[in-house]
Amino acid sequence: MTSLTPVEALALARIDGQRPAMLAEIEAWAAINTGSRNLAGLARQVDVLEAAFAPLGGTARRVAAAPATQLDATGQERSLAHGDNLHIVKRPDAPVRVLLTGHMDTVFAADHPFQACRWMDADTLNGPGVADMKGGIAVIKAALTALEASPFADAIGWEVVLNSDEEVSSPGSAPMLAEAAKRCHLGLTFEPALPDGTLAGARAGSGNFSAAIHGRAAHAGRNPQDGRNALLAAADLALRLATLAGDDLSVNPAKIDGGGPNNIVPDNAVLRWNMRPRSAAAQLRAEAGINEIVAAVAAAHDVHVHVHGRFARPPKPLDANQQRLFDLVKDCGSAIGLAIGWRDTGGVCDGNNLAATGLAVVDTMGPRGGAIHSAEEFLCADSLEERARLAALVLMRVAQAGWQR
């Protein structure tokens, strides 16, 4: 079914003319700094978003972040706080349930210079999080508003999860996302589409790791042979990890903390790195490689090495389960005059986590935009109504035809 039925067309017509209201919401939300570590800003954003979604009539609750830790610069494990997450549910007993996800956090800290919106031209809004992904949250709200006003609403239930830590790999919200995914039949995540409308297909996975290396201090001149140089071991570890990289795995040693005065053999260091496997097999090989290399470095330098971290984002292949949802989105795009294409990407998002539960999910349902994670981030304003219509039609067609996991 590629053409709109009269009832679908009438329901989608409710989105026409909503662009000014959507933009007003996005600009207001972007004015609140919600860097992933800005807990005060995230708390303000939760208040605003709960009020914005209240007219939809779902049951809203705030979910505290699950416990998380990180290694500090000395190698000590410290608690890491994240903001509350917003969870909204409507018609949980419906025969088909859809999970819609977005994130309220951005990569721009409270002291980052990029804090305000400006119009680059009549259709291009530059601002922190306007595409990634406060624009996506506005699309979720508009699409659900159209669904709720349609005759199809009673046949479909929905859950919305707006989390506060996606930009730092969702350590505090991952359990909530997984639980919601297991309750639902399919998922839509509203990361931005590319400026030309292309969606992300298969995604690589991602893991962030830290290794605390403990050696032995000694005088660099009198008895260096009695020392165990943790900084040298960290550098060796970085070089050996880099050899694991291949066509299906990228390895990025990113930072070494440690060292001190030139006349002391350093006894502590912390190496931090990222790995991106493109398949489950590559992830397994990376995990085995880390274990082997850590053991070899510990033995070669007579140091203790403690590894912290994991693959928080599993690889997301475009398998048959994912393909059938892409096909539905493509069909819905055709019905409203949109050519929907997709391509593989090394970027990661909550769609990785949702797909790992077996849920079919398309994770770039948000507005078109680009230059994300930079001060040049932009939103294509003319895509707001377009993407809201696309999401609303997907929801209405799932309500009519059903969906099996």
Written description of the protein model:
This protein is an alpha/beta fold and 405 residues long. It has 2 domains: 6-204 and 314-401, Aminopeptidase (3-Layer(aba) Sandwich); 207-313, Alpha-Beta Plaits (2-Layer Sandwich). Helices cover 35% and strands 26% of the residues. It contains 10 helices and 19 strands. The chain has helices spanning 6-13, 19-30, 39-53, 130-148, 174-183, 230-242, 280-301, 320-335, 350-356, 383-401; strands at 59-63, 69-71, 77-79, 85-90, 96-103, 118-121, 124-126, 156-163, 186-189, 192-193, 199-203, 206-214, 249-258, 268-277, 304-313, 342-345, 360-362, 366-370, 378-380. A hairpin with a 2-residue loop joins β6 (118-121) and β7 (124-126). α2 (19-30) crosses α4, α6 (230-242) packs antiparallel against α7 (280-301) and α8 crosses α10. The protein is elongated, with a radius of gyration of 23 Å. The chain starts with 5 loop residues before the first helix and ends with a helix.
